[in-house]
Amino acid sequence: MAVHGARSRSGGRPTLEEVAARAGVGRGTVSRVINGSPRVSDATRAAVEAAVAELGYVPNTAARALAANRTDAIALVVPEPETRFFAEPYFSDMLRGVGAELSETEMQLLLIFAGSDRERQRLAQYLAAHRVDGVLLVSVHADDPLPDLLSQLEIPAVISGRRSAEETLPSVDSDNYGGGRAAVEHLVSRGRSRIGHLAGRMDVYGAQRRVDGYRQGLRDAGREVDDRLIVPGDFTEEGGRRAMSLLLERFPDLDAVFAGSDVMAAGARQVLRESGRRIPDDVALIGYDDSAIARHMDPPLTSVRQPIEEMGRAMIDLLLGEIADRRPAASRGLEKRQLVLPAELVVRASS
């Protein structure tokens, strides 16, 4: 027997999250059922409707009143130049996951680049006009003003990769710390003694966490951490080349390298070959992302796999929930909106 008007565990009105937990689905799925989307299975719809009845959930009236003014559009905002977007597999994999999950709804996806000041100004005007229902932010740097702008405009948003440990927006990330640690543990287990790290942009929190994992991996093995073995790059192939050249200059006896991305690893590989180093005989090499680049490199590249498509799907699921429940994030807590998905080391011939 369904009990209407039930109180939530917190003592207040039942929330969208509690309905999702009761039904065993994501918040976005609950949103789709409530909004009458046909792209939900009968079994899932029944489970959600039963949870709504049992908890006595009432959709946010303000949000439902705004429904008539919906744009039925979501913006995927990339604060990077277009050239980087098309050069790095990370972005295409993310877009694939976002598109696959969004295809189950009636919403449109807009891809917006904001790599220059002029593009950012245009974007700010566009967002201020509330022409989208929500925003996905990908590849955000620590000092980027876009997340704060979205908060000020009260536009639902989800960020890919936190800006810091104190992130205030809902976010989806992978375990960058665990990934960096696993890469170093693998190299140590293969008997490598001098392990360098080609880091990504250090204003990106994920890159910082990979460095933290690298350091911890060395400490776990009883090794001292020499900061000269850490060379910042920028996630590009040319950045990998520059960082690798500097690292070899500092440590000609280097016998292992952990790169912060597969693209950087590709640049490092060129420098290693030009210097006469054989991979993995002289220098073992590990990348990050487990992209197509890793699989097609010669030799095939050991890489830390981020579940990028899954991250894209999770971002959409979170965002649809945010759109359905427009109360300020601070009033809802962020515990279940800071998702960290596991990373996995995929071992190949390069190490």
Structural descriptors:
3 domains, 351 residues, disordered N terminus, DNA-binding, Rossmann fold, 434 Repressor (Amino-terminal Domain), alpha/beta
Overview of this protein structure:
Helices cover 44% and strands 15% of the residues. The longest helix is centred in the last third of the chain and has 17 residues, at 308-324. The protein has helices at 16-23, 27-34, 42-55, 61-65, 82-87, 89-102, 117-128, 146-153, 176-189, 205-220, 237-250, 262-274, 292-296, 308-324, and strands at 73-78, 108-113, 134-138, 157-160, 171-174, 195-199, 230-232, 256-259, 284-289, 302-305, 338-341, 344-346. It has 14 helices and 12 strands. 46% of the residues are buried. It is α/β, with parallel strands linked by helices. Mean pLDDT is 87; it is low at 1-10.
